[in-house]
Amino acid sequence: MSSTPSVTDDPFLLVPRDASDTREVLRVLRKTRLYALRALLRPPRAHVSESARRVLVRLREGLEPLIQSDGERLLAVIGTPDVLPSLLSAASGAHPMDECLDVAVPALLVGLDGAGVRPAAALHYRVLGDPLTTLTHPLGPLRAAGVRALRLDSEGLRVDLGAGWTTLPQLAEGPAPGERHAPLRRGHLCVHDTNPLWSLEEHPSKHGNATDLAGRDVTEWCDALDAALELIEVGLPAHFAELQHTLRRVVPVGFHPERHLSASYTEAPGLIYMTLHPDVLTLAEAIVHETQHGKLNALLWQDVVLLNGRSEWTTSPVRDDLRPLMGVLLAVHAFVPVAALHRGLAEADHPLSRTEPFAARREAVLASNADGLRTLYRLGQWTDTGARLRGALGRMQDACVLAAPVLPTQLA
Predict the structure, then answer these.
(1) Residue 180, Cα to own-chain centre: how many angstroms?
(2) CA distance 402 to 395
(3) Which backbone phi and psi does 182 adopt, to 5 degrees?
(4) Which of 133, 297, 307, 351 is the most exposed place for a label (fewest CB within 10 A)?
């Protein structure tokens, strides 16, 4: 296997050299989960309903001692794809707090119960909207006949269906076979998505990210995604290892034979949306690309990185429309590791790397990255953390360019 890229200096939030670099990613992800946890602990803003205020006060009474006794397992469950996106969406104001709580908190209690957490002080949650007909679970959705409240204490989890309390095993044995999250070489394929922002879309060629298997079997999706993950393991083995932390869930959103579409959200690190595609390299690139977005999105909850990232607008190397400078950074941060994937596959002498389409794609990505970096260097106003990221991007791009073959278009 290739060990590419070998960059002597700090590859901050790019392609790790080894497990020590992954610790940096884990630190960023942990701080993002702490930020989300604060959404449950701090007094809610004025626009939150009175019912939500009362629920949050009662929930905090149980969370505060749990933080002291079992804080790491609590943070691990906070970081799951059914909890984190809703809490961050509520914290940012991107989605109504009441609706976010009705997704995140039941999933949090179910996840804590599944992790064996038994708090001494009860965690109690009364549903704010209509009774829940689905409880999210790490294995997939559990169908329920109208859950009105949940309680997790030293005896385990119980749910109120309006006619008394029952335990989770009595409620349902597990998700229906067609709704189970299907395991991949990294993460899971998920056909039940709870991200409250799934319908929001910035790409001009897409209209949201509704779950869609495109009439294909789950097995076909898993085989294609696993083949792409295997390609990443060959080209970027350390990056593949890191995916156990940065790729939690893939949501299928259709099939396009001639183009590939993917998406991710600032509020949902580790959750990506992808269409199916017949080319395995295209899928592998998309996984690298979107999980890179997840790492940068997690960092953005802690540091703006680019002081003028939202106010300075410019052309983008990967989009036809004008984009804020942050959009250019997101693109370059995603595609410099894609260039590293190409380099790793070539150094491993993977059969794909011997083809003309691969060579053309490699050249195009390197040129696009160079264009984007020039824009960032020319216009960017960086924080200290941003300058660290900019330096890592430049070094990795230079290493990929030096390792690339000289192509006829470069000689012209």
Answers:
(1) 19
(2) 11
(3) -90, 125
(4) 351
Structure token digits, residue 373: 């970096």
Task: Identify any residues that bridge with 323 across adjacent strands, giving them in sequence order.
Answer: 314
DSSP classification of residue 176:
-
- Rounded mean pLDDT of 277-305? 97
- CA distances to 11, 15, 154, 234 from 396, rounded to whole Å, are 7, 9, 50, 19
The per-residue pLDDT for 406 is 65
At which residue do the structure tokens 């505060």 appear?
64
CA geometry: angle 291, 297, 302, nearest 5 deg: 140
Provide mean pLDDT across the span 95-104. 93
Lookup: tokens for 249: 């869930």
DSSP assignments along 37-79, one per residue = HHHHHSPPPTTS-HHHHHHHHHHHHHHHHHHHHHHHHHHHHHT
Bridge partners, 262 (sequence order):
274
Q: Which residues pair with 188 in a beta bridge?
A: 183, 249
Rounded CA-CA distance 101/241 in Å is 33
The tokens for 173 are: 């044995």
Residue 255's DSSP bridge partners are 276
Q: Where are the beta strands (DSSP E) in 256-365?
A: 262-263, 271-276, 313-314, 323-324
| 90: pLDDT strictly greater than 60 | yes
How far does CA 160 lie from the centroid of its chain? 32
Whole-model pTM over 0.85: yes
Beta carbons within 10 angstroms of residue 320's beta carbon? 9
Q: What is the pLDDT of residue 48?
A: 81
Q: What separation, in Å, do the N-terminal and C-terminal C-alpha atoms of the chain show?
A: 34
Contact 238, 17 (CB under 8 A): yes
Instruction: Match 């999105």 to its residue by tokens.
Output: 297
337: number of Cβ within 10 Å: 29
- pLDDT at position 2: 44
CB 317 within 8 A of CB 261: no
Q: Token match 């294609």: residue?
A: 224
Q: For residue 3, is pLDDT > 60? A: no
Contact 216, 253 (CB under 8 A): no
Among the listed residues 259, 318, 255, 256, the one whose alpha carbon sits nearest the alpha carbon of residue 289: 318
- Paired tokens of 364: 């195009």
Give per-residue pLDDT as tens, 243-281: 999 999 999 999 988 889 999 999 999 999 999 999 999
- In single-letter form, the type of residue at position 154 comes to S
3-state secondary structure of 133: strand
